[in-house]
Amino acid sequence: MRRVGFVLDAGSIEELKELALAAEKANFHSVWATELYRTAFQQLSVVAPVTSKIKLGTSVALAFVRSPLITSITSLDLDEISSGRLILGLGSGAKRTNENFHGVSYGNKPVTRIKECVELIRKISSDVHTEREIVFEGEFYNINTKGYKRTFEPFRKNIPIFIAGIGSNMISAAAEVSDGYIGHVVCSLKYIKEVVSPSLEEKLVEKKKSRDFMKCSIVTCAVSDDWEEAREAARATIAFYATVKTYDPPFRLHGFTEEVKGIRDAFRRKDVKAMIKGVSDDMVKVFAVVGDARHCREKVEEYREYIDLPILSAPHYFLDFKEVRRYQERLIEVFAS
Question: What's the pTM value of the predicted model, to 2 decimals?
């Protein structure tokens, strides 16, 4: 089995460690920590000491709710804890997440902002332990580190930075300024083929960096001999993401506008059952890989024509953690190499 990544999602910190260790023993390329109900960095800080070789990715750390300085030094700390295994995955997040949950202005130029953010993180990570002052005057950040020097050497001065995105401009930004791209759960195979891949390739050719760039995408995958049970589990996760306007482009591409409207109406009524019911079988087929082991392995392989690393995620929203754990363990078993 060729390399795959694995999204960590667990009901307890102890379970995070167990899952990461199991993924490492199964020779997964990487484990990835999400950021909504827990912080990505803290999850990986407990995973790092119990593993030794598997790469550790943030998928994704919210770029705008932290300063570039705190993101940089947190990343340097985690890279040291893990002996150089960190992949810093950054994303703008949704407008609602930034403004309503974090009280941070999202602005109307997230692409420009994330470019500045990445540039600063690189400068800080490579120079903060030296005598060089970092002076930066941009549209979103004005930084002057005079008088600030980190008193110890970094484990690595250049931590790989990946950018997540759905819109073509953010995808192009990933190719322009970062080391890799992370596709969202709702980036279907068709969306990757028709939107993600062309946007990346155009910019990679322009920047002459195709060889060094890693293309990844998260794929919801529910492995079960009970196909209908697996569909129901995936349906719930798709319903959750259908409520977020930032993720509209893939839904529009597939003509699911009316289904999304119904799901959002149910969301506003706080009717979770109706939300899940509103996800059609066609939506499940498009946005998830579900079925028995052989079928799931074959479908995941189809992504490799356009991406280097499928990052597999068990269904998790609106499900009991015991059920989530079963799907996660099955993923590790089926995609072990």
Answer: 0.96
